[in-house]
Design goal:
The chain is mainly alpha-helical and 365 residues long. It has three domains: 48 residues; 46 residues, no CATH class; 227 residues, no CATH class. The chain is built from eleven helices and seven strands. The strands form three sheets. Strands 4-3-7 form a three-stranded antiparallel β-sheet. Helix 2 crosses helix 9 and helix 5 crosses helix 6.
Amino acid sequence: MHADTHQSSQLAQSTSHEAPASANASANASANATQHGEAAAHTAAAHAATAGHDAHGSHDVPPSEVFTHLLGELGDHHGFVLFGHVADLPMMMWDEGNFHAYSSPAKMEEAGKFTMMKGHPVRKADMKPPKLDLSITNFVLFEWFAMFTILAIGLIVAGRYKKNPKKAPSGIQNVLETVVIYMRDEVVYPNIKPRATAERMLPYFLSLFTFILVLNIFGLIPGGHSATGAIGVTAGLAIISFLVINFTAIRESGIGAWFAHLTGGAPLYMAPIMVPIEILSLFIKPFVLTMRLFANMAAGHIVLLAFMGLIFFFKSIFVAPASVAFSVFVYFLETLAAFLQAYIFTMLTAVFTGMAIGDHAHDHH
């Protein structure tokens, strides 16, 4: 009886000691679970904030997705990309009567109003894009690089001319002079009359040719991007050409002559047929300029990436020699296309300008 009582008291004491221990263990488990949950939440948030950079990081791509991944790299990015992601670029949007600016896509995500979807900012409320996206993208940055390069070369050459005006040009000075003389004598003067108009428009055509050429060359640098492979860039250049062509025609020939050319020189009774055709041709010309430059530059990059992608698609060293050989061949073709497409775009703009001015300018002057 005393033994049973003693065992019962010991059992009660052990139970009373185990209860707090169990409670402490439960509390510790809950705390650990909470910490793990918070860590998981922070990890998920970090992955969400950097989701736009995953495409540029080093990760395994399944063979079936190699070409899709490579073609995605040809597009624009909200970050400076050169051999991978280098730095975030600012996000700027005008939406609902307010201007929104963020230092990076991650900061935009943290603000909570916008999020990234398929590489573009959208409102979280309705998943629709903002009214006006003014963000600085990778292509915009390369365009700035091109403008800075052209300006720097121009200042260097101008400084040399001022320092030694009678010295024969050499180096970059000689190259630039050759380009200027060729564009003047072979592109602008033969297509645009009178001579005074051609001389006044020469700086525009020189700027157009050098800008497109430098953008094309940047696309040939390993790791670089060609902004002329984006239809938005080529469309912008074509719209500027469209405005220059028609403004010059109206200025040189007069508004009356500009409207008269809409008949195509046909008798007045043919106007109902000719005027719609001529108006349509006004917009076909910039469309041709847009698609020609975009298609040629984008096609070269696509073919080059396709040959290189074969190595990763088949995952075989036996494919590499042929793939690299064809890639080098395509690379040299792209180098030729970089100069050729800049020349063709400039030449067509000069031809269209001369056609728009027509013979009315000679009568006017």
